[in-house]
Sequence to fold (510 residues):
Amino acid sequence: MRNSLIIIKKQIKDTFKNKTVLIQFILFPVMTLIMENAINIDGMPELFFTKLFSVMYIGMAPLTSVASIISEEKEKNTLRVLTMANVKPWQYLLGIGLYVWLICMIGAGVIATGIKKEDIPCYMLIMAIGFVISIIAGACIGIFSKNQMAATSTVMPAMIVFAFAPMLAMFNESIEKVARFFYTQQLKCIMDDMTFSTLKADNIWILVINSVLMVSLFFIEFKKKGLE
Amino acid sequence: MIRCNDVYKSFSGKTVLSGIGFDISDGEIFGLLGPSGAGKTTLIKILTGQLTFDKGSVSVFDKDVFSLSGEDKKNIGIMMDQFGVYERLSCIDNLKVFADIYGVPTGKIKRTLEKVGLGDAGNKAASTLSKGMRARLALARLFMHSPKLIFLDEPTSGLDPQTMRQIHKIILEKKKEGCTVFLTTHNMEEAYKLCDRVALLNEGVIVENGAPEEICRKYNHQKTIQLHLSSGEDVVIPHESGSAERVSRLLADGCIETIHSSEPTLETVFLELTGRKLEEDE
Fold:
C-alpha cells in the first residue's frame, strides 16, 4: 500500500504539469457549471447538462487518463524502472486507479454543487460506480497498448461508444436499443430518476455484466502481457 | 555475486543467447562487449529476472534469480539504455519518488545530485535536460539507495566525451565503495578503462573472456615494436631480445620520437574472432 501511495503522490505532482490529463479532469465539471448557469431553455429537463456531461465525464476522463498514464509509462520506460525498484504491478495499478478515481470524484463533487442536497449521495454513488468501471476499461487499454499513440487510437472508439452513446440515445430510439447495453447508459437512466429504488433487475444485470466483462478483460490482458 | 551457467534463450525459434556462462565476483566491474544485436540487453534482462530463459541457470546473491526477495531486489540497481526518467518532474522530484520507495532520507537527494554534477539542476524538469544530464540523473537514481550490484546497459552510448568521463569517474568511485558492476558496451576504450574482466559477445555466443590486458596480450600475434623517428621515418622491428641493442642505440642517440608495442586493442581482437567490428552498427 505504501508504494501505491507513492505512486499517487507522484501522479498528483505530474498532473499539474501534464495539460492533456489535467484538461480531461477539469473540462466536464467546468463545462457543466457554465452550461447549467448560462443556458436555460423552456421545457428543458431539470439538470439536463449536469446529467449529460456527468455521463460523458464517466465515459471519457477515467478511460483516457488511465490508458494515457499507463501507456506513457511503458513508452518512456519509467514503468520498468518502477517494477525493478520492487514496485509490484498491483501496487502500481492500484495507485493509478485510486488517483484517477479520487480526482474524478473531486470533479464530480464540483458538478454536484448544482444538485439538490438530498440527491448528492445518490449522484456521487452513480459517479463512483461509473468511474471504477471506466478506470478498469482504461487499464485494459493501457496494458494492451505498447505506447501512447496506440493507446489513443484504441481509446478513441471506446470513449466515443461509452461517452456519446447515452447522449445520442436521447435523440434516436434505435441507438437507445443498443446503448442500453452499456454501463454509461444504465448510469444515465439511474441519474434521470436520481434514485436506486426504481432500479430493475435488467438494469442491475447490465451493470454487473459490464463490470464483469471489464474485470475479466483486465485479468486476461494482465496475465498475457503484464506491465511489459 | 552473479553466476550464469550455460544459458540459452531464443525468441520465436531464433537463438539469441547460446551457452552463456560466467561468474562475477564481489566488487568486480564486468564488461560485456558486443555490437548492437549481439544479445547484451537480453542477457541483462535475464540476469535481473525480467526475462525467463530456455535452459541453464542464473544465480544472483547466491540465489536463483527468480527467487530474489524484495530486499535482494533493493540491492540491485539497473540503468537501461532508455533512462526512464519522469520528464515533467524536476530532478529532485524524480529522485524523491525513488527515495520514498527505497526508504532513503530525502536529505540524500541533494547530495546524490551534487555527486553526479547536477547540484544546480535540481529544480529543472527532466525534459529540459541534455542527454548527458539525463544519463547522470538516471545514475543518481541508481546510486541513491547504495545498491550492492549495478547493471549498466550502455551507460555512455551517444554521450559527449566529457560526460562520458564524468560517468566513468562515478562508476569507478562506486567500485571503490565495493559495488559490483555489470556493464554492457560497444565502446572498447570504455571497457578497457573500467572493466576488471570482459566477455566478448557475438551473435549470442561469448567468443572470449578475461582481463582486457590478458586478452590483448593473448592475441598479440605480430609481436613488433613500432618506432617513429625524429627523421620522420617509421620503423617496425620484431619484439625480441635481438632488437634490444638497436632500440637502445636509437634511444641513446635521441632518434626516437614515439615508441609503441603492437598489442591489439579489444576492437581488433573482436574483429579477428568474429570478422565484425564492435561499433559497425553505430
Notes: The mean pLDDT of chain A is 89. Residues 48-75 of chain A form the longest helix (28 residues).
